[in-house]
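Exercise 3.2. Students should predict the tertiary structure of the chain below and write it as structure tokens, then compare their answer with the key that follows.

Predict this chain's 3D structure.
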Amino acid sequence: MKTVRIGLIDGGVAPALSASVEAVRSFGGPSPDAFGAAALAHGTNVARLVLEGLPTARLLGARVFHQRLDAGVDDVVAALDWLVGQGVDLVNMSLGLRTRSATLERACAAAHAAGVLLVAAAPARGGPVWPAAYADCIAVSGDARCGPGELSWLGQPEVDVGACPFLVPGAPARGGGASYAAARFSGRASALLAQGLPALAMRQHCFQEASRVGPERRHA
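Answer key:
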């Protein structure tokens, strides 16, 4: 199987995972080493979930979360451009911006044209977020019907795929959401890339592999 290199635009990765981390670079923030506990925990959890899907993956961390779990669009664009320049196969973006950006859209289009698979989190409620809403990204939302390794094909205007949203399956109180669903999907997609599936075939493969088709029914 090929070695898959995965870019994580997130909040850093704890030293415990350093054996899987090839490079780290910080974008924005008061200093390269300034980041809060929440940002580091989020990035580390995302990295762990990706590695569950493909333990042999090589990770490149682009840190855009620092003291809080928010990021400026310019930092996200710079992070994406850097990762594409590093030759990654997939970029996981467990984040969402509420304002559409032409600059970010162009960066996503350029990454897609370079053959990079883009995965972005899309919350189940609250309207569209970017970059998930761009056509060049696979938008992933949490689907409580899915267990680890399972996918649902949601086929919604702004959401493509559903995946297990929980950090610890069966324990929602331990944390969950679209961020972790995107990470689980990226792990699964990375395993498929390692087996030789072309990035351009990923959407069709997910539709065929999905254990469920159609959105999860949520009670108000």
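Discussion points: Residues 37-53 form the longest helix (17 residues). The two ends are 45 Å apart (CA to CA).
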